[in-house]
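Risk register update: the risk of archive-format incompatibility is retired. Evidence:
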Amino acid sequence: MSIRRWHQQHGQALVLMVAGLGVLITMVAASITVGTVYLAKSRLQNAVDAAALAGAQVAGSPGQTAFATAEARLISQEMPGATGKLSIESEQRVVSAQGSVTVPGTFATLIGIKHFTARSRAVASYGPGPAFNYAIFQGDPHASDPSLTINGNDAVIGSVHSNNNLNLIGNLNISGSCGGNPTVTSTGNGACGRGFIQNAPEVPMPQWTPQEATPANATTYGSPSNPTGLTLTAQNDTSGNAVVYGNLSVTGGATISGNYLVYGNVTLNGHGGVSGAGGSITAFNGSITLNGDVRSSTNTPGQGMALAALSSSGGFHSAVDSIIVNGNGRVTGTLYAPNGTITINGNVKVKGQVIGYQDVITGSCAVNYSNATITHIPVHQPTLIQ
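Archived output:
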């Protein structure tokens, strides 16, 4: 081969290599740009989904429809730089969320495309949810979190359901079904009258809001800027409804007759309790602790909420927004902690339901399900439909 011919072939190979390198760089640049846009679209969709669900939750609360559109703020909070809006169709009972965000063109700027616009939409429905008829319910669906474990000499009239695994330990007698996701295990002499349900479907947590918990014609103690709290002893039983800013302490044989909304922690000691038709105590951003032989709520099953711990921030909180029942506590009504843990220790009797994000039940606990109690927790669970 002549030197001249060799130089010609070498030059052609170099040209082909440079051309191929250009194509490769273009492909890499395009994939990076597409990946950036796809990631932004995915994040925006998550933000829009969250806003639609939050709007549906508020719209499903009595008298709150006009305020649901404020939840559009979640779009920009979840994804800075994004904009969006919510719209409500009351007749169809749905909330629509739309969002958009501008994404830099990255390598696409080389061909004159300076930015892309990603758009997402979500639709959530609200209204009465599915039937809810569990004596004990754990709403936590995450497999990495603790399973629902019932340990001791417990008697449950009704069914038990966990959106996580369900572990039954000890001498248990459960009249209804026992459902777990994905598994139910039993160690000891446990029995479920209607059998085990493996791979049980996830059941939405019933929702109840502070607006619904606020009692009518209430006496107010303290204020948001001056949370004085309230302490009751055997000498100062009370009747009627109340809103308490600060902690509520009930000691001795004091009895509350009525409905209390407490912006703080609640402690019931001794032989005190809560009574009266529809009697309840709701702690907002606080915990509730019952120590001793405490009688909570009404003397008739199904007449009241009993005890509820609610949160303003959502998510799971292990310390606050929780309920602890120790000793020989007796509760008539529902124990409800949708964002916290319900812990039952000792010889405790519940005539109603135990509904928590997580539940810890040990000792000798008896739960007697009442199908009337759940009517005090409006089940307006929002659900994404688009």
